[in-house]
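**User:**
Everyone, produce one record:

**Assistant:**
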Amino acid sequence: MTSGAGVVGSKGAMGAAKRIVSELPAHELYIEAFAGGGAVGRLKKPAGLDLFIERDPTTAATLAAAIGARGTVVCGDCTRVLMPEAVPGEAVLYADPPYLMSVRRSRKKYYRFELSTDAQHERFLAWVDRFRCRVMVSGYWSELYAARLPGWRLITFGVPTRKGRAIECLWCNFDEPRDRHDTRYVGAGYRERERIQRKVRRWVAKLAALPLAERASILSALGETGSSAVAPAGPPVPSIQDPLVKTAEQVPQMVLL
């Protein structure tokens, strides 16, 4: 669903991408389903492997050209080519499907491949629930999503749209992370991000001014404080040749770009 800055639903155009990036837990494998223009994955710091899955061949080709060697683009239906059981638990999956028709400001179909019925969203949510990695799902609030994602942490934030301000929802199947992948955009909005960055610069300057032994003592204590957030070593990051996605023979319409 995320695509170019001028396309309906673009997380980059709405300014939502920065907020979503700030919520990403630390990871070495990142998967963006319904990638479109890959606004979130392209904004965040690179991981060991960044995998983008987009069903529309034209959009997938445009994305592949834009990211170059920055990541890998798979053209295909993510619910068919991505096998939940093959994704390691320490990975992060971000899914930005076409939103439910019933919660859109306009019932117009904008995408070549829509999820236009509740049944299609039911199948998507059943697929998402099979993953044991960290999963994040974007959408507008609905009774369907609330019922199918019970116990998931819900983050809400306002975004500007062509039809006025809207409330974005981000469902996460994990607790608030203590170890984040990219802290550049932490904060609700530009002013808060600036305030946090000013504080970071002040504290860094104060640490740099301390005697070496005192600085080392403080840094050691800070490391012990955050040690509980360090996850045990997980499985190695799979390469695109590993069975993370089905082969082109299994799903003929899949193309590696």
